[in-house]
Every structure is written in structure tokens, then in C-alpha cells.
Amino acid sequence: MNLDGLRVLVTGSAGFIGFHTASELLQRGATVLGVDNFGSYYDVALKEARNDLLSNHPRFAVARVSIDDSEAFGAVWRDFGPDVVIHLAAQAGVRYSIDHPESYVASNIIGTFNVLELARHNPLKHLLVASTSSVYGANTDMPFAETQRTQTPVSLYAATKGSTELLGHSYSHLFGIPATFFRFFTVYGPWGRPDMALFKFTKAILEDRPIDVYNNGEMERDFTYVADLVDAVVALVNCIPGAQPALEGDSLSPVAPFRVVNIGGGTPTRLMDYIAELERALGRPAIKNFMPMQPGDVLATHASSDLLQRLIGKVPETPPSEGIPAFVKWYRDFYSA
Mind telling me the catalytic residues? Predict the structure, then answer.
């Protein structure tokens, strides 16, 4: 899909998924403005390294502002004049939200409110916003489908993301904003965040330290390799809600150009199998510290990928046996480990 001439604003461009998304957009011909506050939730040097790679491209520029600063953020938005906005900036992490709820309200709710207000007053071809599989919360009917109720979040992080979906629908209905919210399922891969399990496990194993394995390893996740995820996000740019009739099993709103879409492959992996793949890639065993279930966690995630398949004709397919070695190679290269 060629995106020549398309002007895309990407929030969180120095983040894990934002960096990969901006890179893919540039490769496909778009002009990209990244917006990021380079916050200190994790190693800023990693964010700067990602941004340095993007900044080598002539069609990329970055604005170092926070999305919860409505005045500064609004100024860079209006100056750039985007056709499409992909809103990925957020305070991430389930466990961190228990002790630092204020940062989640500021970034996820207030920041997204500012995005919606700007989209209201500066019309777009399409607004795409990152949500999370965590919104499915206490649901146990799997695979998780976009049409399920999501009123039982088990973490503040999930609650803030679910709130942004509700805000997005109301703005889409009231002001005709074409909006797609995508629910990510456990994304991993090169340039990942240091607070994510694969990153922490890799670092600990290479340093001969134990890894914490929650619920004694009795967990499953629908792991999504980052290149597959970004390919789906970019493909969804041209799948504008309301432009075509609803599909079978569609989450398209009956009263707004608004849709939610799972981005996951629909093939859960047991946590212990995931760790075994990492041990193979590193060529050494992990010292496992088995622990009980943690507050805010869920036993399993499993995406229904039917709607994504109908919309873009493909779903994430990279297995951990390929994705994990790719991450390990990047980690060893980047950290000389």
C-alpha cells in the first residue's frame, strides 16, 4: 500500500510501537510528524536512539511536547496539518498503574481527550487510536471478540483505555470523526520496552539472575510480533469506518463512523513455552522464581482475528519461535550483550 503524499501525525513516536509505526509509514511514502515528550518512565536513551533513526529520514520531524499539554500539542498539530493521526502515546503497564494512577489519567484520558478535541476542530480523513486487550478484563469467553462487553476491567490501566474508547465513540457520533480503536494483544519484538516481560527476562537470564514467573507459569498470552502489528495498523489507515457497509461480525457503531478492531493472531502461547523459546534463543536456561498471580493480571488472552481478516485480508502470523530470536539478536547488538 503506497501512502505517497499522506501527512500522518504519530503520537508516541519515540516509543516501542510508535517508532515501528513511523518507520513503516515513512517506508510507504508518508510524511510523518512524531510527537513525544520523551518521558522518564523507562530509559530515555532508548527513546533517543529510536528517534535518531527516524530523524535520518527527510520526511520525518519530531515535536518534543506532551499530549496532555493542550496548548503546545495543539500548536504543532495545526502547524503540521495532518490528514491522518495515529495516536499511540500512553502511559503503559498494568502493575505500574496500581501505584501511579495519576500518570495514567493524565496521559491516557486527558491526553486522548486533547487528541479528540483537536480532531473535532481540525477534520481528519481518519483517526486511529491504540487501545489494549486488557479492556476485556474479567471476561472468560474466548476468543475475545470486539462485540463483547468490556465493563469489567481488572486494572486501572485497562480502565483508562476503556474510557478512551467511550470518549472516542461519543466524539465520533457528535462530530462525525472517522475513528478506529485497535486493541493490541501482548506486543513484543526488537526495540521493545524494558518493563515488558521478554525484555526483563532476557536481561536477567544474560546476567544469571532469576526471572519472576507469575501464577507459577500457568498463563497464556496471544503474543503479537511488532512487525505484524504495525503492518495491520498501517493497513487499517485506509479502512475508514462508515465508508462501506458493516461486515459480518463488525463492531462498526450503528450511530457513528467508529469501530474497534483486535490486532492479534488468535493463537495463544503458554507462558512456559514462551520462556522455553527464549532459553533456546539465548542458549542458556532461566533461573525461575515461581510466584503467585499478581493484582491486575489475567490468566489468558486470546484474540478473535475474524474482523481484522475481513478488513485487511491478513492477521499476525509470526510465531514466537521466529519473533523471540529476532528480539534476542537486536538486544545483543544494541547492548553488546
Answer: 157
